[in-house]
Amino acid sequence: MTLLTGLVSITFRQLSPAEIIGLVKQTTLASIEWGGDIHVPHGDVKRAAEVGKMTRESGLVVSAYGSYYGTKNELVFGRVLDTAVALGAPVIRVWAGQKGSAAASSEDWERIVAATRQIADAAAAAGRQIAFEFHGGTLNDTPESCVRLLQAINHYAVFTYWQPPVGASFDECMAGLKTMLPWINRVHVFHWGPGGTRQPLSKGAQCWIPYFRLLQSVVTDGYAGIEFVRNDDPRAFLEDAETLASWSKMSRQNKR
Q1: pLDDT for 230-253, tens place per residue?
Q2: Pairing with 41, which of 35, 139, 250, 255 sits 20 to 30 Å away (CA)?
Q3: How many domains does the chain have?
Q4: Cα–Cα–Cα angle for 150, 174, 91, rounded to 5 degrees
């Protein structure tokens, strides 16, 4: 099934939801992942309903709710879930704690596994899924820890995001992608050079085209969203959106 393309709204924290929708409408991208820090704040159900309606009326899909549950101890998951439901987001992004997998104790692992099962039950009852951010400083910080975590949770409504770890080689990224592939349903797309400098997405073609071919061969009901562009510039996003759309089309054709 096609891996649909889109934008992660936190790419443009300085823009309003209406401006972000207008920007995406200038492209052939299909979706927006709305962030829970600025555009659709956790617990603001009214705002979530408004943004979700605007998105759909513009012909776009809400791909996910990018929450920060797991990084902020004061966040109550019920409020996050209510917001995602009002937004119409099928997937809620969460974070696997605030410690890297190597530094976490067995008690840390047990606590996050148990907590995730609990929120996954609540999400599933509301027709939603959970997906972990793939990020350093969490239990989901390496392909191996991802598999360990998701196998321990063992819940039908829990998945993971994937993005290429900054500084990793193509071979390392591809190996990690293959390891995590059965659990991936969302992807964050960017291309960074040495030192984390943001580069045009087109410069990452030699890496991303193989990633897309592999993802398109397995992932169902998935989305790949552009996250971060050069200088937070909408013009850079429009260029990257054209690149992403071409890669997605190429991968679908090669799949036939």
Answers
A1: 999 999 999 999 999 998 877 666
A2: 139
A3: 1
A4: 40
H or E stretch covering 175:
helix 170-180
Three-state SS for 41? Answer: coil
Its domain, for residue 152, covers 4-255
Contacts of 9 (CB under 8 A, 6+ apart): 17, 20, 32, 33, 34, 35, 39, 66
> What is the domain-level CATH number for residue 114?
3.20.20.150
Residue 239 to residue 108: CA distance in whole angstroms: 42
Q: pLDDT digits over 13-57, tens only?
A: 999 999 999 999 999 999 999 999 999 999 999 999 999 999 999
- Which positions ≥6 away from 238 have C-beta within 8 Å? 23, 26, 27
Residues ≥6 apart with Cβ < 8 Å to 213: 251, 254, 255
pTM for the whole structure: 0.96
- CB atoms closer than 10 angstroms to residue 106: 7
Give the per-residue pLDDT at 252. Answer: 62
Q: Is there a contact between 120 and 159 (Cβ–Cβ < 8 Å)?
A: no
**What is the mean pLDDT for each group of 10 consecutive residues in the chain (256 residues)?**
87 98 97 97 98 98 98 90 98 97 97 98 98 97 98 98 93 97 96 90 95 87 94 97 89 58
